[in-house]
Structure formats: C-alpha cells, structure tokens
# Entry
Amino acid sequence: MDSNQLINMADLFGAHNYKPLPIVISRALGVWMWSVEGEKYLDMLSAYSAVSLGHCHPDLVSVLSDQASKLCITSRAFHSDQLGQFAKELCELTGMTMMLPMNTGAEAVETAIKSARKWAYIKKGIDLDQAEIICCRNNFHGRTTTIVSFSSDDLCRKYFGPFTPGFVLVDYGDAEAIAKAITPQTCAVLVEPIQGEAGVLIPPNGYLKELRRICDENNVLLMLDEIQTGLGRCGKLFAYEHEDIVPDVLILGKALGGGIYPVSAVLASEDILGLFTPGEHGSTFGGNPLACACAREAIKIIVREKLPQRAQELGERLQNGLRKINNPQIKEVRGKGLLTAVEFHTGKTNARQYCHRLMKNGILAKETHETTVRFAPPLVITEDEIDWALDRITQAFQADPNDSVG
Ligand SMILES: *Cc1c(COP(=O)(O)O)cnc(C)c1O
# Structure
C-alpha cells in the first residue's frame, strides 16, 4: 500500500487527536527514517525526545529480543529478576534512594502527585483533602483528566471537565510568584526545568536555585518533570544539574525506555516514596521485566556513549548554525543541549508551513504552537549530520514557504 492509502485508512478508522505531517514511515535506524516510498529523512523530533539513543540501537534491540524470548511480564504479584536491578541502577544514576516504575510519562506525573499528597497528610500534617500543588502556566505534564486540570491550554481542557481540584497556577520563570502562592496547604511545586511542549521556553538563570530555596524555607517538595529534558537531552544528565540543585521528586519517562518501550519512573527519598503501602498505587505493566531490561540497557548506553556531553557540544553547533540563518521572520533561536527551537514572528507564514518545507528538504521536525519549530534530534547524531541538517534547514527557512516550490 502507498502512503496515501495508509494515511486515508488511519484517518478513516483512527480518531483525529493528532495532526501528523503527511508522511508514512516504515523503517528507521540511528537518526534516519525511511518512508514507505523509500525516501530518507533526518529525524529531528525524536518522538518528542524519546529516541535519544537513535532508532533501533543495536545493543538495545538485542537486549529487547533476548528478554522478549525469556520473560516479558510477571505483573507485580511476583518478583522478576529484572526489577530489583533496574531500581538499584536507576537510583545509583540519579542519586535518589527510591523509585517507583510506571509506563507513560503521564502515569509517572500522576504518581508524583499522589506521593506528594500522601506526604502532605502523613508528614507535613496538612488537613485531609486540602493539599495544594503549585504548577506553572503553559505547562505540559500529560493528558489524564487530573493533569489537564492544571493545564492553561484551552485546547487541552475545554471539553474535559469537571476537573481535579488542588492545583494553583503561576507564571513560568517567576520564582517570586511561587513564593507568593505558597500557603500552609502547599505540599509541592511541580515544574519542568525547560517547558518543551510550550516551545522550549527557558526560565531565567537561577530560577531552579530560587525554587529550591523557597521550597526548603517552606517545607514544600520540589518536583521536577524531566520527562523531556532528562537523560542527557539538555547537555547534562538532568537539566537541573545546570543549576547545581537536587529536586525532592524526579519524574522520568520518554528516553528512559530507550525510545523502544514505554518506561517511566518517579524517584525520591524513602521519606516520600516509602509512604506508599501495598495496594495504594500500581500498574499492571509498570516495572515489567521487558521494560526493566530495556531501561537498564538504555541507561548503560547513555553513560557509555556520553550522550549528555554530545548533546552539549552538538547543541551548541546546531544553535550557532541556526543563528546564522538569514530570515527576518525569525524572532529567536533558543535551546539547551539538543533541545532547541526556532521561533518565528507571527505573520503570513506559520511554523507548520515551515515544517512542510523542511520535510521536502529531508528534515522531519514538528511545530509547537503557531510560531515555533522544535529541533530535538537523537543525541547520537554526528557533527557531519548536524552540518547536513543545517544546510537543509537553511534552504527551507531562507525561502518563503508561500512560494510554491513543490
Ligand atoms: C511527554 C511529556 C509528558 C507526558 O508523557 P506521556 O508518555 O506522553 O504520557 C509529561 N511531561 C513532559 C514534560 C513531557 O514532555
């Protein structure tokens, strides 16, 4: 079947909760993807930063297939030989003392919220059902009904109420606003070190340091959602390392499963995660042996291939190249490591049109909102591939996408 038939079928039988570019991928390796027609593209989205290790990393594929032929799932009713080792290795990697495995990012965020609330009642002594969590406007933490309850994006929430109470919104990047929003009922602050989905919004220097201080002074948990920014993406193993702080609760997902299997986790001290008792929380697939084996190998690869350092160096190269593009429509180039974005002025051309143009030039990227194109290639990308990409991006961005080229 050709691309058009496959797209039509997806449109006819699948709900339209996404608006993909009109391209059908059937194979990928490393940073490259091939369409069903055999055309080759450079992946500069990495499945929203999940594919940090590149597609089908051979070591990961071999661990996946070995484990798949041995043991895939036990449920948590029994132990597996993988979970304990994964838990230990992830705690060692992050410097945390306890972890709780789930599958998707949203589930890990939900887990963090529940653990903060239990901590509020058991440890902080907040009256039952009164705990508040402070979040930031323009956040993206996932799609469950509780999580969209504290979204500020109308599209994510409008028809999905009634909502879960107990969340307070303040402007992102404004530490003082968080200090002001704290009440005796506040148990936690939940933030992204960089707001990825909002368009790679980077807070002012010192923001996380300030939040750390404010949370300490008020006995409030600092919970960082590093689902997109973590595991090397931003040029350090975790984005919070740029500010020399440590969160109380760390939320991971996306790249944790090596981009091959959904794996997420919440990490914290025993004081927080140790409060869960059997039956209070869980997931049938969370921490299954296949997931654990993939995540263990993904961690090994991230460390062995020095992916955070690569992201730092190649991110600078990418950003410098993007800054050289001459198009008055470009408002700003920003990023940290290999999480970068080009923002355009609002005008006759929108980011989506630029993405179409990029696609015709062999680059797959996706707009976030009307005006921003995000570039987040796999962290295994080489210098030469970055330069190749810059060439193609320059061609696509220097031309006016309203000119009818193809
Ligand atoms: C992608 C993402 C999530 C949600 O992860 P899912 O696996 O899609 O549920 C949560 N937080 C951030 C910062 C993300 O980028």
Remarks:
- The chain has a mean pLDDT of 96.
- The first strand starts at residue 25 and ends at 29.
- The CA atoms of residues 158 and 230 lie 30 Å apart.
- Residues 48, 104-106, 109, 140-142, 192, 196-197, 225, 227-228, 253-254 surround pyridoxal-5'-phosphate (CB under 6 Å).
